[in-house]
Amino acid sequence: MSNPFFNNTGPYKIDFLLEKIDLKIINKDINVTDIKDLFTASNGNITFFHSRKYSEFAKKTKASFCITNSSLKHLLPKSCIPIISDNILFTTSKITEIFYPDSVNDNFDDTVQNIEKTKYKEKVKLGKNILIGNNVKIGQNCSIGHNTIIEKNVEIGDNCSLGSNVIIRNSILKNNVHVLDGCVIGKKGFGFLPSQNKNIRYPQIGMVLIGDNCEIGCNSTIDRGSLSDTIIGRNTFLDNQIHIAHNVKIGDNCIIAGQVGFAGSSIIGDNVMIGGQAGVSGHLKIGNNVHIAGGSGVIKSISDNSKVMGYPAKELKKFLKDNK
User: Fold this and answer.
1) pTM of this prediction exceeds 0.90
2) Average pLDDT over the chain, rounded to whole?
3) 84 and 119 fall within a common domain
4) CA–CA dist 41, 269 (Å, integer)
5) C-alpha to C-alpha distance for 154 and 138, rounded to whole angstroms
6) Do 236 and 136 reside in the same domain of the chain?
7) Residues 51 and 86 grouped into a single domain
8) Burial of 78 (0-12, 13-18, 19+ CB in 10 A)
9) What CATH number is attached to the domain comprising 180?
10) Residues of the domain holding 69
């Protein structure tokens, strides 16, 4: 879904955008309304395509323009005009920043005020020293612990519980969500482009969406998405000290033990169980009903109904046979 929290300053003419980032003008008097990923882009949007692993999405994209290179452009549909760049991610970053100039930095929210000065002082069960930012909505029968900060742009459903020392921004929590002490949800992800002189921060315009009946364990961190959203499916339980990077999608009814880490843009299916201290590399697809043993290192996608273990993670039976 589109992020309701960041202000889109467009539309812009495509040649204006190209001139701003020193790319070749294509002499098209066409408005570009937004920048989105290949899957969610629609007519009037610009997107990017930088790896063949996304070829199927590229072939079906509905975007009007796509930042790509000469070796990938032939995979785009005829309705999508390629914008050729030698550095696709850098170009994408710069265009994203034009549309969403307030999405690069994550300074502390100076709009917050003590909850005692807001309409929620009589509506919510309160701890002490709670701060609330602008554009915050809190449902019925919720509780908030001591020293918690709900920064700007947060929606919280009914029957939710936030522990103490929690920080949330740019997030939507559905009903019956429990966030335990010390969590940080919705801050910018670890998105940057390495450079010899200065690492360039990539704008993070997505949000975090947590489904019904979820629990987020103590001191866990969930980064908001970059172009798409970070999503936790309904009835998924996270143990303590879990890190979920930007754009990760975790399905329904998953159970994830402590100190598990997910790198960016991986997709986790439904009914997945992951043991403690496992790691999942970025841009992978983990199928439904998968079991990943504790301490495993997942560096390849995993098909449905698999049980894996080890580093690199392999089928459980093969792992046990190889390690007799």
Assistant:
1) yes
2) 93
3) no
4) 23
5) 8
6) yes
7) yes
8) exposed
9) 2.160.10.10
10) 12-99
The verdict on whether 246 is a catalytic residue reads yes
Whether residue 222 sits in one domain with residue 156: yes
- 238: part of which helix (H) or strand (E)? strand 237-238
CA–CA separation, 234 vs 295, rounded Å?
25
CA atoms of 165 and 148, how far apart (whole Å): 5
Q: How confident is the model at residue 140 (pLDDT cuts 50, 70, 90)?
A: very high
Report the SS3 class of residue 83: strand
Residues 165 and 28 in one domain: no
The C-alpha angle 266, 53, 257, rounded to 5 degrees, equals: 15
Catalytic residue among 50, 178, 243, 246, which? 246
SS3 label, residue 316: helix
pLDDT band at 193 (very low <50, low <70, confident <90, very high): confident
| pLDDT tens digits, 241-269 | 999 999 999 999 999 999 999 999 999 99
Question: Could you tell me if 74 and 126 lie in one domain?
Answer: no
Number of domains in the chain: 2
149 by Cβ neighbours in 10 Å (0-12 / 13-18 / 19+) ranks as buried
pLDDT average, residue stretch 200-218: 94
Which of 97-106, 203-212, 284-293 is least confident?
97-106
Place of tokens 């070829």: 55
Answer yes or no: do 154 and 283 share one domain: yes
